User: Fold these one by one.
Assistant:
Number 1:
Amino acid sequence: MSVKIQTLSGYFHEYQKSVIEPETFWDRIAETFHWKKRWNKTVEWNFEEPSIKWFLDGKLNITENMLDRYLFTAGDRTAIIWEPNEPDEPSRHISYRELYHMVCQFSHVLKDLGVGKGDRVIIYMPMVPEAAIAMMACARIGAVHSVVFAGFSSQALADRINDCSAKLVLTSDGNFRGAKKIGVKEVVDEALKQCVSVEKVVVYRRTGQDIKMVKDRDLWWHDAIKGKPTEIEAEEMDSEDMLYILYTSGSTGKPKGVVHTIGGYMVYTHFSFINVFQYNKGDIYWCSADIGWVTGHSYIVYGPLLAGATTVMFEGIPTYPHAGRFWEVIDKYKVNQFYTAPTAIRALEAFGQDPLLPFDLRSLKVLGTVGEPINEEAWHWYHDHVGKNKCPIVDTWWQTETGGILISPIASITPTKPSYATMPLPGIQPIIVDNEGNVLRGNSVEGNLCMKYPWPGMFRTTYGDHKRMHDTYFSQFPGLYFTGDGVKRDEDGYYRILGRVDDVINVSGHRMGTAEVENAINEHPRVVESAVVGYPHEIKGQGIYAFVIADMTDRTVANLTNEIKITVNQIIGPIAKPDKVQIVPGLPKTRSGKIMRRILRKIASGDYDNFGDTSTLLDPGVVEKIIETAKEG
Ligand code: 7RM
């Protein structure tokens, strides 16, 4: 048994141990896994380069700890329950034994297609069990997966394929999402026009729609697995070998490939999963995220399957065919732990309580939230109407880079407080610094959230560009990992995440770099310059507001703003489409040419006065003009 916290004093006790003797603390947890060879050293690190290594020289295969481990003791236990988009379509229950065989079989497919240890495989698939199977098959043979959210455009997909020189793409014909049927393979075809590294494409049939199969390049999933053996030796991997790359947005440039390695990620996702959710054997756990995001990686696939859990995978959306769909699924499978995002909670809250009435939701024990700060109103609605006042809410703060949850209540153990992520998990050492890097000690302080000690699940590099990792996260406050979030530690020592302090905006829990959206807008031939900011949005948390200088010849404002939205949609995908585009005569720039985003953020949020010090503005008149058109709507 791993370390599982049972009481509040137990939490404080483990926390103390983890800070005083981190190596002993993590050794004890790591020892509960199956290693082909034990590690020689627990951790070796410095946050200057940075260089982070855990469980050095340990040899293992993560899938042996997810599949083989449960084969004989719990082979018949359900590993994955898959709920399709359409409630009438049959669901799928996949046992640990079946999952093991499916993963082994697909591992053979990968090998036979020439994929080997260290090769990169892109997974651009809808929410079907085969996507998780593909991830594990990669891990089984030592290949590195990079899942790309199936809502991203062909350009975004091509950028990711090229950044990691992937050899293989796994995809599907199409994707069912609500009332829509979306082409997926056609996006891959378009992307691959720009990618030379890809040799083969394997296509999982989901919608049955017509697609084009390219000769000698494309093959069907069901043909590929035919006759393949259902056993395969798990490749012996080093703790610090790459497990996966996941692209995420930052404040500058193109998305970065966040790299996670095997040993530490395994230990941390398992540890955080069983503790935060207080998962017990036999529980049914459901995380409604998409596997294209880190939450899907750590808390649909890796964490739960490492724990021998039953994990629900949902293909659909919260509002199809009706706004009670989530509650219907919870009752259908008697879900015990449910994990979703504030944006989904707010969207469902808008439908009132009627959609909840037909469902009893009595199976629920724990409710989780992740992705963005949860407002108090949404917290209470979730707590009162979904949890019926008897389920603790775990407000879990973490990031793609952290690999797993760092600050969160432990369900039923940590007293909760609406909108607070509460306290760090054992092994996590947060520190708050002001903008000059001074450490803010004690309680009732507010500043930049950093970490001063590594934890096993943290990322190791940004793919192909280690300097970028240093510059982005380890240079602003030397010796610390800077998260990019602002935080308050209140009078009780509880942490409340205040949101990003950099140019990253959080739209429905999805991270977007404002620079990334600006670059896409600037691709429109009429656009001269643009500035993008976030503004408060009732459902999405933040909406995207674009201020654009453009050549208006033969265009109406309506035409042009619409074209700009379409451009972003094509270049990045629907999640990046600006909610508002305002054509402006100029941008508020300082004499040194820097855009004063602070002013634009105020205007975007509908606040038109008190801009503070604007003395450095080159042309203060431009602000008045922007406000004038903003008011016109
Ligand atoms: C897991 C995930 C990370 C950013 C992070 C925060 C925000 C995430 C919470 C939160 C307040 C939370 N990974 N964030 N969880 N803010 N409370 N419980 O979301 O890489 O996509 O985003 O999301 O700003 O830095 S992510």
Note: DSSP finds 18 helices and 30 strands in the chain.
Number 2:
Amino acid sequence: MADVAALDQYAARLRSEELRSQLNYHNYRYYQLDQPEIADAEYDELMNELRAIETRFPELITPDSPTQRTGAAPLAAFETVEHRLPLFSLSNCFSEEELRAWHRRAAERIEREDFAITSEPKIDGLAIALVYEGGRFVQGATRGDGRHGENVTANLRTLKTIPLVLQGHPPERLEVRGEVFMPKSGFEAMNNEIAETNQAREREGKKPLPLYSNPRNAAAGSVRQKDPSVTAGRPLAIFVYQLGWVDGARPESHHETLAWLHGMGFNVNPEARRHDSADDALQRIAWWGKERERLDYDIDGVVLKVDDTRDWDRMGVAGREPRWATAFKFPPQQRTTKLLRIEVNVGRTGVLTPYAVLDPVFVGGARVGMATLHNEQDIRRKDIREGDTVVVQRAGEVIPQVVAPVLSLRTGAEVEWEMPARCPSCDAEVARDPEEVAVYCPNTACPVQRVRLLEHFASRGAMDIEGLGEKMAYTLFREGLVGDAAGIYDLTVDQIAALERMATKSAENLIAGIEKSKARPLTNVIFALGIRHVGYETARVLATHFRNLEAILDAPAEALQEVEGIGPVVAKSIADWAASPGNREVVARLKAHGVDFGGGMPEPAGDQLAGLTIVVTGRLEQLSRQEAEDRIREHGGKVGSSISKSTNFLVVGAEAGTKLAKAEQLGVRTIDEDTFLRLLKDGPAAL
Ligand code: IVH
């Protein structure tokens, strides 16, 4: 009997291998070449047969089996992957002149005038790196910070345009880079589907699922799903645009690389072109400017690369941007639509900000229903009225803006807008600072202000309390559980667990997060208080100078103003805040709860660098750029952002760019990282 079973399994293995190879081949014909050889029904038959075998003999399932595209078991969290070579970003050009300048610099570097360049649409999606070993897809990671990304292999396996097995004779190991994106059509269909599901959910009393605001976010969100079967259901695609690294020889030009990758089964953008001159490339860019809307994906520019890859090493990298490539960016997209009405938003400091409610339009790759109007003066200056047809603009991830009204379309029914005299949240009479443009609600008990302040207090860069976002802040306030920042530390697991849609486990997690936040650095604590004009950078300056929260709050405005980087407006704002008994009471309660007010600050490092201005450039080995600059400040030195005659030292790391040249030109002393560390320890006399 046992022998029969073994034989059975042997036959199944042979057949499953055959099926897998056939299915992978047909996937390639279908998705990459767009030339299927068999009908869909035949394909399904092969797939079903393979599924049946794998159900019977699960031990025969391989990670690259086409059946696995439907998604593996959910992931707990993404592990970090170190990229063997960093993923770079691109320099930008915004005009013909800038592009020509890039082309000229390239010519100088390679000492040739006539060199070919390639152009490809720049898709606004997310960059990923795919590793293949023995022709099989073994790892897919997000770009992350360029050096470390997230391992999203299981999710990427579900993309039909990512080959699981390479065609032909692929090198033993290689890494390919590309952009994962969501086609516009798929994006709309998906959002419509979510909206429909939400109607059903609403009837069942369930929370609605969020809609995605644009295809880019939808792609990023879909790739980072914990459950690969969710990713599998999302309309994602990829175009690969670069060979990261390879064991063995690589083609000598970019256009050949793309063709080579295509031959292995990768999806390569068919719109890539090769140009003999900057003029030729500019023509293609101009054409894209007109035609890009016709594509089924959003592009925000055109990527240009020196075609001869042998030149790439000679040209090198400036910072994180290779000199052999650049991105020509299109100007922001504009659309006209109806401005239905103007409403105001109350911020955490009480400032009232008007915004436009629009008849929704699709602009710059996203549906826009609201746009910022900055302030009253701006509305007046642009003469924007309720009921106007307006030009709306959106660029990249920035908040959409109302550019101007279309005066020729005025009917006379438009209404001039005025800032409300009372706060839309608490009905308090609004106040105007004579020196400032802002109008604000002076009522510190104003409910919207309170909620916004709680949200800010818990946000990243502030107390960074995971699980305490906008919704939770609102719920806690509405339920009367938390009235101010210090109240967060009075919360109990039972109180939170009793809230709608909260379980004991999530309540415990939130409490743990709150507890952890007590040890945040002083800078974060100062920033978290939400004092007007005190952003993170100002908070850092205050923390470094005073090293203790109470010392800051006890300091008179004059003393605050003496701190470098603190002006009279900021100083007054801090002193006013500290003078309020209500604020002092919150601070006292935070202290009683054990929030660190600076006790954990490291001892002053000394003033070895007093009077010195130091600039850092390139990549250091032992310190990050931020750490190096913090060290300079901690030791009493000044950090310069550019080289001038008054710069004392330039710390030079790997791949240093123009600053090094400038320093040499001006005779500024350059030092390496080790010397810098010695300088920190012993001061300039020791060098
Ligand atoms: S090349 C030099 N080619 O743009 C190597 N990037 O701003 C950099 N992108 O992170 C990548 N389309 O995600 C390259 N055809 C293309 C691209 C492209 C989109 C993205 C990519 C990168 C970002 C850089």
Note: The first helix runs from residue 2 to 32.
Number 3:
Amino acid sequence: MVDKNKIIKEYEIRLNKLKLYNDQYYNKDNSEIDDKEYDKLKKTLINLERKNNFLIKKFGSVENIIGAPIQNKFKKIKHGKVMLSLSNAFDLKDMEDFLKKIQNFLNIDRSKIVLSAEPKIDGISASLTYKKGKLTQGLSRGDGIQGEDILLNLKTIKDIPVSINDKSFPEKIEIRGEVFITKKDFAKIKTKFANPRNAAGGSLRQKNPKETAKIPLKYVAYGFGSIMPETFSKQSFFLQKLKDWGFQTNELNTVVKNLDEIDEHHGKVENLRSSLNYDIDGIVYKVDDLNFQKRLGSTSSSPRWATAYKFSSEKAFTTIKDIIIQVGRTGAITPVAKVEPITVGGVVVSNASLHNEDEINRKDIRVGDKILIQRAGDVIPQVVSVDKLKRKKDAKKFIFPDKCLCGSKLHKEFNLTTKRKDAIKRCLMGYNCSYTAKEKLKHLVAKDGFNIEGLGKRVIDKFWDKNFIRLPADIFNLDFKKIEELEGWGSLSVENLKSAINKSKKISLKKFIYSIGIRHIGMENAKTLSGFFKSIRNFLKMKDETYRKSSLINLSELDGIGSTQLKSIDNFFEERLNYNIIKTLSDRLEILDHKDENKDGIFSNKNIMFTGGLEKISRSEAKSITEENGGKVMGSVSKKLDYIVVGNSKPTKSKIEKAKALQVKIINEKEWYKLLNL
Ligand code: IVH
């Protein structure tokens, strides 16, 4: 007699593995195994099913759903307009901040801000291009700049019209929307995928569109990318148009006028949430007026005119098994609670963040405690509260370590902005600490930096353990023969990695500066530095102390570069190893000179400073307009200034005096608009 339970167990272990690989593949774009191994695993499962019918009864068949080989490489095509992601809001206070920022930026009365409120369906975004009413292109989001050509698969979705006959339909338009699967349809294929989003993603990326067609996918439209001509003035009007043109839009879309209405609407939809036939994880609020949207523009990652207000997160009780510490790429030490695995919001959770030492002390969190945890969005779950009544008498207070995992002493830094010691303890060893180093390497190759596909976090860990990599340059000097011998690697995945690495060798100065991970230098500041240094050659000169001193003084005049950044840049070049790292990289790579994004702009090569409040627009909008027109906004008066724009409200006298003395051209707000032809 065969042991049925044993077979079920074995099948389940393999099935879970398959699900994990699916998840890695579809959601994280970073599979541990190659196609061949994936197929082998699936075949084993199918054989088991065939021999043991009860498996199919219990789990359904693997064959039905993920029957076809997964398409690995779709053709990549550039989006007409980049697909950004959204900033998040988690409570009403965040929404108040969102509104305040808009109000300040536009320098308008709060009552003028009307928002389009749209449920945020948790699926996969897809961009559809129509030319003269015909669907000609269908792309996934990809990295936001380039998407994958999944037109044939998208065409199997009934909600997506292939031709539109309507006079008001633009000549050329990119329609943006979400591909998803209903809860009911997901229930039928539940054993195969971790969640509906995963199922939609998996189905969309099939090699054979017939496989995509097997899963009933839906499409709801919510936005546009490039468009010609634009014949509407509000997002809410556009949503109405979408309906007229034959697209599905969400039936709960509406407009709201103020914080109270946001709050009320949010509560209403949250109550409806469980009764809807599709997963939503929040509401997207967008400034309704498209002119305002254009003026607001976006930061490097998300538009200023929209945010996703997430629903309150799901909570669950569990027990702390252990408290460990993790080291981040900046050396920051984060305590993490290892908890009894528990499902929260459809995802198995086994870690919860404890933030920092103060937080542990404040909540008095101990190993063995029963805790309530919550999961919000994709972030690591957090501890909400500790049930102290259930605590065992002998539970010991957690003593926060004063040494890093690498053994070196931890420090709390002095924060120049708050003029206080940081709450976070840090290891300051950089690449000399193997824990920090690994995280730095992960940052280097991530999407916003070198963007090396196939070199995800787990791969970095593995390569590190195998001694393949220690410093950034090692990535460009890998021994692929050795990699091919590793478990889970085949010739195909090695080839893919090789070509991804080769591709990444050409990199903009901005991304390079961002990737090397100088503290306090995010993408915006990296852009500023890139514009300042212009070439890697100049950047490398920072090794020289005299050059560095004078450069830092010049840098201090740039907007966004404050004392924290200056100190950090100085520290970075003070450390010999850092210089060696970037020098070695620069010898191996092609780091492209800075390209001014708008070099034909009216302010190209011009330095501008503002003093005093402007009447019509805010300082931030003035900055973004200046940059859009090729100019640089400075933070202080110097000879380098081409213009100082004096606003009506409280300009600084001493700055104007200094500008006069230096013979800098002084103009008022009106004259500035005139230069811009506004
Ligand atoms: S607007 C720049 N509107 O949410 C504007 N996004 O990070 C970005 N999503 O995966 C998107 N419903 O596909 C927008 N009504 C809606 C949406 C929506 C769902 C998804 C979007 C993306 C994510 C935003």
Note: The pocket of 2-(butylsulfanyl)adenosine is lined by residues 84-86, 118, 120-121, 125, 178, 222-223, 284, 303, 306 (CB under 6 Å).
Number 4:
Amino acid sequence: MKLKIMEVKLIAFVLLQAVTVRSQVNPEMCRYPLGMTGGQIQDEDISASSHWSESTAARFGRLDFDNGDGDGAWCPDIMSEPDGLKEYLQVDLRSLHFITLVGTQGRHADGMGNEFAQRYRIKYSRDGSSWVGWHDRKGRQIIEGNSNAYDVVLKDLEPPIIARFVRFMPVTDHSMIVCMRVELYGCEWLDGLMSYSIPDGHQMIYRGLDVFFNDSVYDGASAERSELTKGLGQLTDGTWGLDDFLHSHSYNFWPGYDYVGWNNRSFPRGYVEMIFEFDHVRNFSSMKVHCNNMFSRGVRMFRQVTCYFRSGSEWEADPVTFRPAVDRVSQSARFITVPLGDRTASTIKCRFHFSDLWMLFSEVAFQSGSAVYNTSMAPRDDPTHKVDDSNTRILIGCLVAIIAILLAIIVIILWRQVWQKMLEKASRRMLDDELTARLAIQTRAFSFHHSSLSSESGSTSNSTYERIFPLCADYQEPSRLIRKLPEFSQSTERLGKLSKGNKAFAAGGSDGAPHYAEADIISLQESSDNSIYSITAVNMNFFAGTDSSMREFPRQKLTFKEKLGEGQFGEVHLCEAEGMQDFLGEDLSIEGNNESPLLVAVKTLREDANKNARNDFLKEIRIMSRLRDPNIVRLLAVCVDTDPLCMITEYMENGDLNQFLSHPMYFLCLSYTTLIGMAVQIASGMKYLSSLNFVHRDLATRNCLVGKKYTIKIADFGMSRNLYRGGYYRIQGRAVLPIRWMSWESILLGKFTMASDVWAFGVTLWEILTLCKEQPYSQLSDEQVIENTGEFFREQGKQVYLPKPPCCPDRIYKDLMLSCWRRNAKQRPSFQEIHAQLLESLA
Ligand code: AMP
């Protein structure tokens, strides 16, 4: 397959970027396990103050997701130590790392042990000699750890740590033995910055409001609270200030929190001097400074910066000076890139000149090439010998990363092309036929009268039903995707442990929702506890049992006309049903079908279906047989006395809504009113389902059918039948779910309720008003969709919503669509309200 020229250009561009640009660290991406679990951290790099016995030495302190026996752990000899608070487990990462998350676990030894650290502290060091106690942004040092010996507890480090050595220090009252297994998450700190020295920030009084620009997380020394030396802090914490410096990313902090800022009046020379010390000599290509520029309040980015370089003891004579373009228009905060001309240094001193009364910085980052090894500076036994080692590792890392990016891009491009083809609506049937022809042909007793084929040949159909249902791009396997994210991974990985502990999930959040890192998707999927779904016992009874009214239709009276489509159970055929009206004893023309013999859709279970699929098929029949609403597709009869099992439903001449709307023919002729009319019908059908407390779980345009005169009926109860299995339908052992239509709580907590159907309705309405031109969140990969789900959970304003469709009035988007995607399920509207609101909008 040839890659298009554009795509090759894209690869080249990305590669070039990867080689030449190394951007500042992004704490949201920088969350990789650093090697306690995976073994990349060597035993000799894990040490401890003491251990209880040889079998609980430091090297056993590795967090363990997979093994499950939970036997090995580090357990200090706290009892014999007069001051157990000094005990620690130390990890040497061999180079500076940006650490954003830590995980801890206890020791259960398969029920024999029950040792864990309820609370602990962290200390860290960049050089191995001076140690700093970590504290959160509010000054708290103690981290709440484990509450049992099984579960992994992850804690975000806010602020993150930049260190090579990290110590975990259990806090205990000596009443119990403590054991720990740990993991660190983050990424390598490529800046190599060991410390910066700056004058501490000042206080501004803005319209009577105290605004503090001090470096509140600085971890070095502070001389009389004015000169900060030998530490790192807010300028390297990966958090960039907002345009309006009065506001910060977190609401709980004081105005000005995200910035370090200085007042011109305190600097008679007109500049602020900063000294940056690095781990070794490097070639610096540039420095990026994130500055505020709210000039209406006397704040502007710097006018000029002059940087001096030092590799040995003396500053070099020729500094680099840079003057950024003055911006008198935009008040947005921005990164200013200062070219450093590939200068060599281990220390850089920069003087930033004021251009207004205030200068505010929130981040400083450096881009440097590989280190320059200077023999005069590095005697044989000097620790700087490790410089070479670490740079070789960085270089190898970069090359591996580039190759991985290249491979990933090629795979993505190929994948997109393959899937685009598969999803090509027009060629869907062709694809089906081709697949059918390719797969083994097996004659089987299938007593439809095939009007075109078999009636001529006199033989029966030889449809095979052996094929594996092709996975549609709308359905994904969330547990697989979630496992890729370190913050979510433990929830899926600890299934084994949870099931041992016999738990569903541990509630944690203040709103009663479990912390996503504590929610267990797989255990919920496999939980038989139906209480997690909002279906009452009464309604369970309603759907349970056999339905005597669903009668067996003589299958010889079905005559095959054409194939309509294919679902996960098998094919759907259009058939003529001779005598169906008499059989049902009803005049079906009332339902809009005047054909005689009646045209029906026949859904057939493929022959090689296993027992589970067969049971599910029968359950779907049972569910559908009880549903009777003008906007729910009606089950007319069944053929279940002999194989293959069939369900006979009313025929919807215009197929599914997705394929209907995306057909170019309808592009111009469908009015906004018609589209909203369709949404009204779906809302009405859902209103009926919700009156039965029935959760559909897979509402989307692809699962709505279109009949004559734009009649819409909800179909496909394939996912809802799982209510009775307490687990997801699995195709070849995989749980595949429509993640782009699912609420955050369905993805992260496995919770499906009426409110999650409302969420899916919002997405369905969006599909309708965009004429199904693209998949929801088409610009996001599946992984990014899951990440976005995490943002909905965190609700820090970073979640991405589907955009307003071009023809959609503001009030439908803001008052209806967005309300369906509210984080709090209780605040989402009911289908009754949605139905009324849509009707009202048509009035
Ligand atoms: P399903 O197995 O229900 O997902 O159906 C697969 C495809 O068959 C759908 O996407 C429709 O295109 C078609 N189909 C299913 N049921 C009907 C029906 N009652 N009337 C017309 N087409 C149908």
Note: The chain has a mean pLDDT of 77.
